[in-house]
Amino acid sequence: MHLLYADESGNTGDAAQTYFVLAGISLFERQGYWLANQLDNLAREINPADPSSIEFHGSPMFGGKGIWRKHMKADRCRIIREALKIFAYSHQSNRIFACVVDKTKISPNDPVEFSFEQLASRFDHYLSRLHKENNAQRGIIIFDKSTYETTIQGLATDFRTIGHKWGVLRNLSEVPLFLDSKASRLIQLADLIAYSIFRQYEHGDDDFFSIFHDRFDEVGGVKHGLCERL
Length: 230
Prior knowledge:
Layout: E1 2-9, E2 19-28, H1 31-46, H2 58-63, H3 73-88, E3 95-102, H4 103-106, H5 111-132, E4 139-144, H6 149-161, E5 177-179, H7 185-203, H8 209-212, E6 218-219, E7 222-223, E8 226-229
Protein name: DUF3800 domain-containing protein
InterPro entries: DUF3800
């Protein structure tokens, strides 16, 4: 089983922001424990007395909000880099899928619908490719429960029955699941990656993006894991 933990960055209703990002990390089920354990260790370094109180979320970490207010910006950015390196240095089978949308280029269409169609179909294509390599795997997409749950659940059901632009989702074993990010280090990691991609496109800041830029799903020099509508 391959799990795609996904989250978004950018506000669809904020005219001051150009881009919307939906991104996820795909990993074989047994890889999840290792990644979550490494993130727990990082949280323990920050707050040994209560590591569970530490949540890794890109925007509040970078901006110094909430529990991150007492940390200097240099330390906050270092912690973001350390968390991203945990994925960047993980098993090569772990991959990133992302869709970056210039909201004006697809208006009046919904950037959430467009991005989810891209993310789901590309993840499904990846699983189909594994099947052709005699490595049959099913997949599940897991979102932060604060993400656009009603919209995404409806789309996923339609894709499995009616289909999307490129066919029908054939390799997903269930409609997307939604978890509280407080309980999932892997959702938090997906948030950091989505935020890092957003900063790269919205602000031209590749400080974080450069850490994992080579981990998108790729075959023969073609980045299937990155969709850009710019």
